[in-house]
Design brief:
There is one protein chain. The longest helix has 21 residues. The protein has three domains: 165 residues, 2-Layer Sandwich (Ribosomal Protein S5, domain 2); 215 residues, P-loop containing nucleotide triphosphate hydrolases (Rossmann fold), CATH 3.40.50; 92 residues, no CATH class. The protein is elongated. The chain is built from 22 helices and 16 strands. The protein is an alpha/beta fold. It has a five-stranded parallel β-sheet. A four-stranded mixed β-sheet has the order 1-2-4-3.
Length: 505
């Protein structure tokens, strides 16, 4: 007796079809799973046995063979529990095969027959939608599956309710799409006292999604500024929210299956390993840079990160994705994030202050700054000093501009960029930070004085081709904030003022 179930295996964000075949034949009682299962899948037979026992059902006293095809593909995860259980129920003639044929099935079983939530339901639902199939999944994952546009979703809370649904004894309601409408208590830019140059640079960074490095002594407000960047970034579009939610779904970060339109903000500690930051590990899981896709990655105390870990950021910063290679698979994750970094000028943080700097200055500063490579610095568009705040600024009770006021200017600049891309017939670009090649030349038309200033400055500052182009993108954003179509000298001059190395010693 043979039953067949449509299910899937995961390789990063790639969803691979798996044909689960169940045969119940005569012979000594046995329960065997073949097809390269990992330890979790091999343990499924015990969870399935207990779940059936909770329904007062016993496994047939026959030879049960489960085959996961293709047999040479590694199968990982507890989501094979539910398709295995349904396959056995088909073999026992409790559930009709024809009711199951048009569904992709996945879910983890508890010993009491409850269906537990799993990771990765959203991308599976999107694939099922493309193949004109329905989806059977845990009830708590139903809300995220709805965002795929799939019309036939059976989100069950238990094996019993699923059996009754397919036998026509009850109907499981279609799940509701849920948004994470929780009010975010964003810190406001009006709380920042002084630091007008840094606030201006942060606004430009937000308008064009540019990378930014802040260098200054302890307590100057670097982390304070970075934590407020989210408050001046526009919310994600539906397309961006779906892209980000797919990654968070695979990583198990979607809270109750709710889609969030607020841009992600990831701030890993400086002791984070390379796999934790860029992705990897035994299952090639997404790292912090992929969880920050379409959002912000804040690296505080930048030189304290392991140097190989920082160097691993170079490819994602340039290409917007990260590739993870392991023996059994090659996985690619999106990683289009905005890098905001902060650092002290030296280990003690007081370089230049004769009363506070250590006895090893400036040698300690040379060693400290040398931890950040030139190629990585080359990929950071805005590099600014954040000096200590004066007591007069701290004592000033007058509030500065609010985040809401700055956000309006950022949204206007982003809309200008969106309109420009539409005029160029480009659909997959969203911000000036993504401008490249011929498109960059079209978007950064400038007058002769501006061109002369840029060439002379690039020659004197020894700017690389990458730094030259990043300066152009930055100037384009500055012009967009001023609603200027053509780049002029003042736009280039301001962009160049942010294009510098860490403070000289």
């Amino acid at each position: 007796m043979l039953a067949k179930i449509n299910t899937v295996a995961f390789n990063g964000l790639d969803i691979l079809d798996v044909d689960l075949q169940i045969q119940i034949s005569s012979g000594l009682p046995a329960f065997t799973i073949v097809g390269l299962p990992d330890k979790t899948v091999a343990e499924s037979k015990e969870r399935v046995r207990a779940a059936l026992n909770s329904l007062s059902l016993s496994l047939p006293a026959k030879r049960i063979t489960i085959n996961l095809a293709p047999a040479d593909l590694l199968k990982e995860g507890s989501h094979f529990d539910l398709p295995i259980a349904l396959g056995i129920l088909i073999g026992m003639k409790i559930v009709p095969q024809e009711e199951i044929n048009n569904y992709v099935i996945l879910g983890e079983l508890g010993l009491d027959g409850k269906i537990s939530p799993i990771n990765g339901v959203l991308p599976v639902a999107m694939k099922a939608n493309k193949k004109n199939l329905g989806l059977v999944c845990p009830q708590k994952n139903g809300s995220e599956a709805v965002w795929s546009g799939l019309k036939d979703i059976v989100a069950a809370d238990s094996l019993l309710s699923l059996i009754n649904h397919f036998k026509g004894l009850q109907s499981i309601p279609y799940p509701k799409a849920l948004k994470d409408d929780e009010q975010k208590n964003f810190l406001d830019m009006s709380d920042v006292k002084g630091q007008e140059t840094a606030k201006r640079a942060l606004e430009i960074a937000a308008a064009g999604a540019h990378n930014m490095l802040m260098v200054g002594p302890p307590g100057s407000g670097k982390s304070m500024l970075a934590s407020r960047l989210i408050s001046i970034l526009p919310p994600m579009s539906s397309e961006e929210a779906l892209e980000t939610s797919i990654i968070h779904s695979v990583a198990g970060k979607l809270k109750e299956g709710k889609i969030n339109f607020t841009r992600p903000y990831q701030a890993p500690h400086h002791n984070a390993s390379t796999p934790a930051l860029v992705g990897g590990g035994r299952k090639a899981e997404p790292g912090e840079i992929s969880l920050a896709h379409n959002g912000v990655l804040f690296l505080d105390e930048l030189p304290e990160f392991n140097r190989p870990t920082l160097e691993a950021l170079r490819q994602p910063l340039e290409n917007g994705y990260v590739s993870i290679s392991r023996v059994s698979a090659h996985t690619t994750y999106p990683a289009k994030f905005q890098l905001i970094a902060a650092m002290n000028p030296c280990r003690c943080g007081n370089l230049g202050n004769q009363d506070l700097e250590c006895s090893r200055a400036p040698k300690c500063a040379e060693e400290y700054q040398a931890k950040i490579s030139g190629p990585l610095m080359d990929r950071i568009d805005i590099q600014i000093d954040v000096p200590a705040v004066s007591p007069w600024d701290i004592a000033d009770v007058k509030k500065g501009e609010t985040s809401a006021e700055i956000l309006q200017r950022v949204i206007k600049a982003r809309n200008i960029q969106k309109k420009r891309f539409e005029d160029f017939g480009i659909q997959n670009l969203r911000t000036n930070a993504e401008l490249k090649g011929d498109l960059l030349e079209k978007a950064t038309e400038m007058d002769e004085k501006a061109k002369e200033l840029l060439i002379n400055a690039a020659n004197k500052m020894n700017l690389s081709a990458r730094a030259y182009h990043r300066t152009l993108r930055l100037a384009r954003t500055i012009a967009d904030l001023q609603n200027e179509t053509k780049l002029i000298k003042i736009h280039i001059a301001e962009a160049l003022s942010y294009r510098r190395t860490v403070p000289s010693i």
